[in-house]
Amino acid sequence: MNPIRPLLRSAVFSRAAAGSTFRHVARRTLVTPTSPAQAKVSEVSVEQRVREDPGEFEEGHHVSGETAEGEEMFGFKLNPVATKTGGQAKSQGRPIYLDMQATTPMDPRVLDKMLPYLTEQYGNPHSRTHAYGWEAESGVDEARKHVATLVGANEKDIVFTSGATESNNMIIKGIAKFHQTKRRHLITTQTEHKCVLDSCRYLSTQGFEVTYLPVLPNGLISIDDLKAALRPDTSLVSIMAVNNEIGVIQPLKEISDTLKAWAKETKNPKPYFHTDAAQAVGKIPIDVEAMGIDAMSISGHKIYGPKGVGAAYVRRRPRVRLEPLIHGGGQERGLRSGTVPAPLVVGLGEACRIAFKEMELDHARIKSLSDRLINGINSQVEHIVRNGDPNGYPGCVNLSFAYVEGESLLMALKDIALSSGSACTSASLEPSYVLRALGAAEDMAHSSLRFGIGRFTTEAEIDLVVERIVSVVTRLRDMSPLWEMVQEGIDISKIEWSQH
Ligand SMILES: Cc1ncc(COP(=O)(O)O)c(C=O)c1O
Question: EC number(s) for this protein (predicted)?
């Protein structure tokens, strides 16, 4: 007799003997099962937004009634949220959040959709032998459809990743490596996100050549520069869709048309066209077919989804060939091995579903808040420069304040959560490389602020921000000797400063 059998039997017996107590303990859940009524786990008052702007919101998808002070949720004490009338602007003690390019708050509808996959539906989506696996797989399949629908793709072309950083690495390095014997040249721009620039820099150390296209003073690339940079051995052109610091929207269709025309004319293979669309997907219409995009990077936490999840669009027809960076179980078409994190992916899918449905409404609201911010500041403070093309994404407003010292400006605005330059580079006080690429003067790059407006930003918040900016800039300028000279009519650009 197998010596292990009695042990097994006694284990089974003791479970059964434990009876109802055992079952009770095993079934206890830390998080109560989800229901639409629980979609209120947020500091951000969706209820407030719905009341202000009922628009297209689905009835019953949101909570009604505010979260009272100290109310408990899932065993945690919640901080008091925005009051009924004041929105977040009156939230107690927390800065107003205007840093939507760094990350967005998760939409409560997304959390609501994720919760069952964090509690009861915990199966591995790759388990084929039981219902736990099937239900997780079906959640992942549905999410894949939502992501694909949002960007006009075939769902089979969507690969789930941990975010846009991973997607960018996977696509750029993967394509370069696959084609390394014959095509060792890549083209990108000087204003890409660090994860694109650093992937390219890594490839340079491996013997690849990279052309970094400059940008025009408004942040757009020149199509002529692109044409001039193309070579018979160019395997990839990677140009971002929306810039994370200045909101500039690159002409994606024109870029892909240029690549096709060049390939036809020169009889060279068409370089693949990749776009980092972390700041674009869900915010402006993106259609991979209509725009001729071969590969694209998507991030969950920029579109009110969870952090730690994203996607790569990798076209299958005609096929984009790339070498996988991660090896293992062969999940995600073998391009990204590892168990697909069903709860996160379901969250990303829901974020995409909502974005597809509400993009127009979001865009219109954000545009109106953006105009309100710019006009509010401009009408009361002079010598402000808007960095980047004014027709860019309205939720990203980058302003430079002349005659104001950048660090003092940030220090004085502690009650507003915003960035100077990109979130990733603002830890150092170096002026942003993106603003420098536009040709912005060093001092103007230093005194720039990025205002990131999003789905849950309210008019009350914008008004409060305008009030604070006007008062802080006026106060700092009053202390500035340079500003005094400007007021006296001295052209300080003509001053010859003595060197000591
Ligand atoms: C344009 C752009 N690309 C890539 C990323 C990285 O995204 P993730 O945080 O999903 O890795 C960001 C985030 O800041 C971004 O703004």
Answer: 2.8.1.7
Rounded to the nearest 5°, which phi and psi values hold at 236? -145, 140
Interatomic CA distance for residues 423 and 294, integer angstroms:
28
CB 331 within 8 A of CB 127: no
472 close to 415: Cβ distance less than 8 angstroms: no
Full-model pTM = 0.83
332 φψ region: left (φ > 0), alpha (ψ -120 to 50), beta (else)? left
How far apart are the CA of 244 and the centre of ligand 1, in A?
8
**Residues 6 or more apart whose Cβ sits within 8 Å of residue 193:** 164, 168, 240, 244, 276, 278, 422, 424
Residues contacting ligand 1 via CB (< 6 Å): 101, 163-165, 193, 195, 240, 244, 276, 278-279, 299, 310
Residue carrying structure tokens 């009922």 = 54
CB count, 10 Å around CB of 166? 23
Distances (CA, A) of 425 to 5, 101, 433: 60, 13, 9
Mean pLDDT, consecutive 10-residue stretches, the chain (500 aa), reads 39 36 37 43 45 42 34 37 36 83 96 96 97 97 98 98 98 98 98 98 98 98 98 98 98 98 98 98 98 98 98 97 97 97 98 98 98 98 95 97 86 91 51 91 88 97 97 93 83 67
**DSSP annotation string for 277-301:** -TTTTTTS---TTTTT-SEEEEEST
How far apart (Å, rounded) are the C-alpha atoms in residues 252 and 238?
10
Q: Which atom of ligand 1 is the closest one to the Cα of 242?
A: 1
424 is catalytic: yes
The residue among 385, 377, 374, 391 whose CA lies nearest residue 447 is 385
Q: What are phi and psi of 438, to 5 degrees?
A: -75, -10
Distance 17 CA to ligand 1 centre (A): 53
